Amino acid sequence: MTIPASALTAIYQGLAQLPAAMDSEPARIMLLAIGLQESGLTARVQIVDGGGQGPARGLWQFERGGGCAGVLRHSASRYWMHSVCAARGVQPTPAALWSALATDDALAAAAARLLLFTDPRRLPELGDEAGAWALYLRVWRPGKPHIDRWPANYERAVGVAA
């Protein structure tokens, strides 16, 4: 599986809306690996078993009351998420953010980076697949984590971001 160029562009555009210190190799690796894990960096609306739509939106699959509410309210991310929303013309509410994530990949990338920023621990070092997995579990809290897909997704992310 290749990583869509549009997803890479979205990551760089999203990171450009945040303080420069938030753009790092470990951050880009985590964004790529989690995006691959959550949506293959292609699905902007969650697809559930049976083909229906699930409650998550955007390449990083945020739910309205989960990731969207979290980045808008958490003390570490609130200021920056509100700033990004203003720059992208999105009301800083969970419902408006959730809706916009289905069409604005740069917004989704910024939100995903800010969700990582809410974790009090440092981002895992390059090659720390287990640490990256632990961070993903802590912050995304996936309902069905699929550990079997993580090693390949992480390796692909390292190959692109490094």
Instruction: Give the strand order of the largest sheet, numbering strands 1, 2, ... along the chain.
Output: 1-2-3
Give the number of DSSP strands.
3
Order of helices and strands: HHEEEHHHHHH
Main sheet: strands, sense, barrel: 3 strands, antiparallel
User: Radius of gyration, rounded?
Assistant: 14 Å
3D shape: globular
> Which secondary-structure class do the elements indicate?
mainly alpha
Can you count the helices? 8
Mean pLDDT: 95
Our measurement of the CA-to-CA distance between the termini, rounded to an integer number of angstroms, reads 17 Å
- The total domain count is 1
Strand content: 5-15%
Helical content band: 55-70%
Residue runs with pLDDT of under 50 for 5 or more positions? none
Q: Give the oligomeric state of the chains in this entry, treating copies of one chain as homo and distinct chains as hetero.
A: single chain
Provide an overview of this structure.
The model has no long low-confidence stretch (mean pLDDT 95). This protein starts with a helix and ends with a helix. The longest helix has 15 residues. β2 and β3 form a beta hairpin. The protein has a three-stranded antiparallel sheet with strand order 1-2-3. It has one domain. It contains eight helices and three strands, in the order ααβββαααααα. It has 162 residues and is mainly alpha-helical. α3 packs across α4 and α4 runs antiparallel to α6. Helices cover 57% and strands 6% of the residues. This is Transglycosylase SLT domain-containing protein.
